[in-house]
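Extended Data, panel c. Modelled sequence:
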Amino acid sequence: MSTEKKIRVGILGASGYTGADLVRLLVVHPNVEIALLTAERKAGLPISEVFPHLVGLDLPGLISINEIEWPAVELDVVFCALPHATSQEVIKGLLHATNHSLLDELIIETVGDQASAIKGDVKIVDLSADFRLRDTNTYAQWYGREHQATEIQKRAVYGLPEIYREQIKEADLVACPGCYPTAALLALVPLLKAGLISAEDIIIDAKSGVSGAGRSLKESNLFVEVAEAMHPYGVGHHRHMPEIEQELSVANGENVKISFTPHLVPMNRGELETIYVKLKDDETADSLKTTLMKQYADEQFVTVLDGSTMPATRMVRGSNNCVLNVFPDRIDGRAIVVAAIDNLVKGSSGQAIQNMNLMLGLDENTGLMQAPMFP
């Protein structure tokens, strides 16, 4: 794709944490012009009033989605950073309003779980959970309402670039993974595909910064509720569980059920997952690590650490990076895989831009080469 003309990008839901990070990253993307920003409760305000750290940037003002003049706004890419259950209806409306050719091609039989792309229309990158689950009945079970765009769901590509790169390149609609699934799947998919670990008794102990709970006002997110403390939530029924199981089942060839417990920790951003697995046959922690090193040897954003270096959130803060390592468990026949990401970047906005780059034929790392922040 020619980069002489700027790619016109719209961000729906720009007043949340993921929206803010999309802006932060996209303003330094050499091929992008941010042409549209929406925020329902903050409509009419400049984004610098919502996020003072963005002051001084030449950005459009925030408007309501209902104020968008489709298709006159002429966007090339739309990032949908809206709440779950909202994205599906907004995206369905966007496709109709722009006479998107995807609607005309929905009757084409898909190949496997993915379909051939339709060229020449606005690309959509959805950061909500609305198009991540291929089975809309599973979506209804976990999100408490029927899916409102089942015909579009069939054409969504799961947006984990290190696993689905070729499908993403041909997609019109990409569903970005959740932050917890991103770290878990990067750690586990290659090991299950290679048959090195058992699909049974996978235990994922996950911890995330408070930004992972969103920006809406909640008593449980107040400073005195989260500072100097750590607590689990969604125990036994967190909505990322079916998403992780979906992709691990694809890698395994048979259904996988996991034990997954997330925790909220008193930091702004960052995510660490400690994953306990059962080894197959004569496999060891070293053989698991060797497999991960081979899998990610040519990957820009995933690094398997040397020796016994422990992944930590401070290694990835503000970056699109994921760091991994594998350690032997003192229980025979088991190993421990540790993964760290920034939940707002590789776990959300950065990965969304990585997907956009692939969809548009740009270098995958464009606009994403920020080194991690420390301290």
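Residues 124 and 173 are 5 Å apart (CA to CA). This feature is highlighted in the accompanying rendering.
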